[in-house]
Amino acid sequence: MSVTRKLYDGDSFLAEFSATVLACQETENGFAVELDQTCFFPEAGGQASDRGVLGKATVSDVQIQNGTIFHLTDRPLTVGETVLGKLDFARRFDFMQNHSGEHIVSGAVHRLYGLDNVGFHLSEDNVTLDFNGLLTREQLLTAEREANRAVTENAAFRTWYPEARELASLDYRSKKELDGDIRLVEIAGYDLCACCAPHVKTAGQIGLIKLLDTVKLRGGVRIVLKCGWRALADYNCKYDNCRDIGNLLSVKQEETAQAVRRLQEQLTEEKQKNAAQKRRLIETMIALGDPEQRMVLENGLDGKELQLFADGLFRRKGGICGVFTAVPNGFGFALCGEEQPLNAFFNEFRQHFSVRGGGRNGLIQGTVSASEESLKSYFHFL
Ligand SMILES: [Zn+2]
Predict the structure, then answer these.
(1) Residue 177 has what pLDDT?
(2) 85, 102, 173, 319: which has the fewest C-beta neighbours closer than 10 Å?
């Protein structure tokens, strides 16, 4: 194994290259191909690897071990041959927009609030960054504004491996104590941070930097970030949703949340009215029903209503009373009675059918997998 020459260190926009195949080993998931040089950035520092092709082989993953980069391919390559490599550059550029955006945000949060970035994750569907302290909504908005200022000023990026003496004289951000050659990424006027990943050349290439959800995590916060094309896609998704909700509720887009809140209040009120009506209906059904009938099948009842109905029957008729309502693959039920005879009744019932449920204080609720006919013949009075 030899140290692979990292072409992405010199030019992050280089998407095609030719290289010599040094080794090719069959693995569980394909073939691990070693080249003398590569444009493919391996999975590192929380960032997923590049994808693309080597000749006719598809590269689905890239890993680095002790400076050697392994390309996982779907077919073998011949050792000694020269192969043409091509990156999935849309993926690379998307990763660069988001990783470079992360540097600017982390730099701004560090400068403004003294917090450190202690975690970073970048994949095709999610970018998150973790800070070792809390941030208010206002502080986040200030950091976001500061980050976007770097974009509007088109701040220049520079990456290099400084000599030991130069490195010792520099104040740079770093997630962990690094050994070996340290690569620095400078965003002129904004940030200086140790990082091995490919970055944009100027902040303007990032486009919009948007901070989204924040959650508290281990005494700090995790922030979801969307930059560039991802931010635009996110805006479009939210715009479509807002427009549709606005149209459905006949309100302006800016007033959708308020309108949904009103709707929710109305719904709660309607649900309360409906529940009161159902309670009255249940009471009437009990009063008008056959005085001998203690087992009832009534569809469309929820758990609370089943309980209410069975309890009402029991209070009026005594003995053991039950109400059943159809649910997928069987029936939901509530049984009411004096504790002891009810438990014996329930045990007997359980021996005849596949029953799930239980209860105490004279009430048992659950579901039973059974056909209507078999239930009716078991409780011949159902
Ligand atoms: Zn980085």
Answers:
(1) 61
(2) 319
Instruction: Say how many Å lie between the CA of residue 70 and the centre of ligand 1.
Output: 21
Report every protein residue that has its C-beta within 5 angstroms of ion ligand 1. 195
Task: Report how far residue 223's alpha carbon sits from residue 297's, in angstroms, rounded to the nearest whole number.
Answer: 52
- Is-contact 87 79, C-beta < 8 A? no
What is the third-level CATH fold of 93-236?
A: Threonyl-tRNA Synthetase; Chain A, domain 2 (3.30.980)
Compute, in angstroms, the gap from residue 54 CA to the centroid of ligand 1: 26
Q: Which CATH class is domain 289-378?
A: alpha beta
Q: Supply 286's token pair.
A: 């009990």
Distance from residue 40's CA to the centre of ligand 1 (Å): 16
Q: How far is the CA of 2 from the centre of ligand 1 (A)?
A: 25
Kindly give the distance from the C-alpha atom of residue 105 to the centroid of ligand 1, in angstroms, as a whole number: 11
**How much distance in Å is there from the Cα of 75 to the middle of ligand 1?**
32
In 150-188, which positions are buried (b, 16+ CB within 10 angstroms) versus exposed (e)? bbeeebebebeeeeeeeeeeeeebebeeeeeebbbbbbe
Determine the topology of domain 5-87 in CATH: Elongation Factor Tu (Ef-tu); domain 3 (2.40.30)
Tell me the C-alpha distance between 119 and 109, whole Å: 14
| Element at 345 (helix H, strand E) | helix 339-352
Confidence at residue 62, expressed as pLDDT on a 0 to 100 scale? 97
Give the residues across from 5 on adjacent strands.
37
Span from the CA of 206 to the centroid of ligand 1 (angstroms): 14
Domain boundaries, the chain: 5-87, 93-236, 289-378
Q: How far does the centroid of ligand 1 lie from the alpha carbon of residue 95, in Å?
A: 11
Return the pLDDT at 179.
64
Q: Report, as ranges of residue numbers, the positions in the chain whose pLDDT lies below 70.
A: 176-179, 380-382
